[in-house]
Write a structure and sequence with these properties.
Structural class: alpha+beta
Strand content: 15-25%
Helix content: 10-25%
Order of helices and strands: HHEEHEEE
Shape: elongated
Distance between the termini: 25 Å
Number of domains: 1
Low-confidence stretches: 83-89, 128-161
Mean pLDDT: 70
Number of strands: 5
Number of helices: 3
């Protein structure tokens, strides 16, 4: 995983793990934080039908200090992540906010909400949810994003095929 392979990230956790139990050694703190990281790929369709690969990175902060957390977030954003389908990319902080009007999540837009596809969902569905081949269109002027990272298209291998 990207964090294990990053001397900067492991050194950061070793020094800044005040949010983790003090009974853990620095090495155990590093292992705990790394094992809690989840990376989720999302392909957003933007104006003109172009695909924009984004990555939502879910991670427990090793620190409770806000400025140190910002450093942690920025450090994570510089790492390359390997995920399904042999995709990879270097994180870049995404400048807009995503907001789902169905579940109120901030990590995906409404057309990519997973809830309408769950068994026995009786709530509303996004416009494209019922169409198998329809790509959701997203008005990015109406969106804003928090802790989502974008993979520039030239760094994505899985689009070749």
């Amino acid at each position: 995983m990207a964090i294990w392979n990053s001397p900067e990230a492991t050194a950061f956790i070793t020094v800044n793990h005040d949010a983790i139990s003090s009974s853990l050694s620095p090495e155990q703190a590093v292992a705990m934080i790394i094992n809690l990281v989840t990376v989720r790929k999302m392909d957003l369709i933007i104006t003109g039908g172009h695909k924009e690969r984004t990555w939502a990175i879910y991670a427990t902060s090793p620190t409770e200090m806000f400025n140190t957390y910002l450093t942690w977030r920025n450090l994570i954003g510089t790492l390359s992540f390997d995920a399904d389908l042999a995709t990879h990319g270097e994180g870049v902080h995404y400048p807009k906010e995503l907001h789902c009007t169905l579940c109120y999540g901030i990590d995906h837009p409404t057309p990519l909400c997973p809830y309408p596809f769950t068994t026995r969902w009786h709530g509303p569905v996004p416009h494209a949810a019922g169409c198998k081949n329809a790509a959701p269109m997203i008005d990015f002027d109406a969106l804003q994003v928090l802790d989502i990272h974008c993979t520039p298209a030239h760094e994505t291998r899985s689009d070749q095929g």
